[in-house]
Amino acid sequence: MNIAVFGTGTVGPAVAAALVALGHDVVIGTRDPEATLARTEAGPMGGVPFAQWHAEHPGIRLTTFADAAAGADLIVNATNGSGSLPALTAAGEENLAGKVIMDIANPLDFSQGFPPSLNPVNTDSLGEQLQRAFPAARVVKTLNTMNASVMVDPGSVAGGDHSVFVSGNDVDAKARVSGLLADLGHRDIIDLGDITTARGTEMLLPVWLRLWGALGNADFNFKIAR
Amino acid sequence: MNIAVFGTGTVGPAVAAALVALGHDVVIGTRDPEATLARTEAGPMGGVPFAQWHAEHPGIRLTTFADAAAGADLIVNATNGSGSLPALTAAGEENLAGKVIMDIANPLDFSQGFPPSLNPVNTDSLGEQLQRAFPAARVVKTLNTMNASVMVDPGSVAGGDHSVFVSGNDVDAKARVSGLLADLGHRDIIDLGDITTARGTEMLLPVWLRLWGALGNADFNFKIAR
After folding, report:
1. Which of A122, A147, A208 to mutate to probe the B interface, most B CBs <10 Å?
2. Residue B30: closest CA among B90, B94, B100, B72
3. Closest among A10, A3, A6 to A149, alpha carbons compared
4. Under 8 Å between Cβ of B99 and B138
5. CA of B67, closest CA in chain A: separation in Å?
6. Rounded Cα–Cα distance for residues A150 and A146 (Å)
7. Domains of chain B by range and CATH?
8. Which has fewest Cβ within 10 Å: A44, A158, B57, B108?
9. What's the pTM?
């Protein structure tokens, strides 16, 4: 599949590399490729600067949001939450129409410091905002409830015995995303329903952040025991 | 221990009976005992009317919030979220001072129908509201992330292999509550930190409600796989 991954932070490159390993053709989309390659600061989690990561992954082309989306069958939104709507707008409505948008971002608001709050929250969600903004696209919320390393290597936590959620209005889009999740090694994929159920999974973030503090690391995930 | 359980819906009686089975002296507090005993409608989950349940549990006295709190070492808040502050206010600040309030309620707002939203949410929580309103009490948020039957019989789901959270400012109060949770059969008790962490566990409710729909029953619980 031709996949565009939006976002050059911790999550985007991790997901892009994992999808390449599964045999997909992957490009990374960013606002300004030259500016992204010029960044020299370490990643937010102490990772290498994007240019260094990119040099180590020469098969993954970096391009604009619009160019990446134009050639893609499926788009992974791994931008930060506040940048998601601008990124998809820059991609262009015509480049999103009919396509699956796998939205793995969270609308975290750090404006008041740590812990962040969510915006939107409770009666709306980022997933719903994206679906409303691009009604011809098929948004599926997933993977936003775990660390990037767990997204792409679920077996690294509890032998993979934990859960991942999908929310979306389009049954075929959810099936395609669920196929990708299974290929990544996710075994318990729970379809919560339409895109409004993304409110619930985005609202898992506050307890996720507190668990990170209480447990001292991010190597955990939610499992729905039943 | 002398324990007062506030609330005569599904949760309060279930918790009261379980605490009696553990050997505690338990009373149930309600706004108006005569009115509660006069109710003839079934419980919200199809349970028996309170008066019938009460007749089957003659050892558990029903009294006013204030009288119940006055004689208690620990108070379980199992009222509905919108009634929690009024219930504790009716109990009287002097009857709450120094005592542990085990807050197992959720601030669900059904005013716009199903699914409910939360109020407060995101930058505040019911647990924090109660602690602010009664600064001399020691509020511990817990058990609000699962069905009543799982609260009192954790072994009924996945052999008890799942998690429960505690949030509160007072270390001794959290230790006492954690002891009760262990006595009920909870094995993975995660201390998230101070009472502000109740925001995270209350914000689990939206996905809990959607899981209830997706799974078709409430016999599940969150486990933190790690």
Report:
1. A122
2. B90
3. A10
4. yes
5. 36
6. 6
7. 2-215 (3.40.50.720)
8. A44
9. 0.97
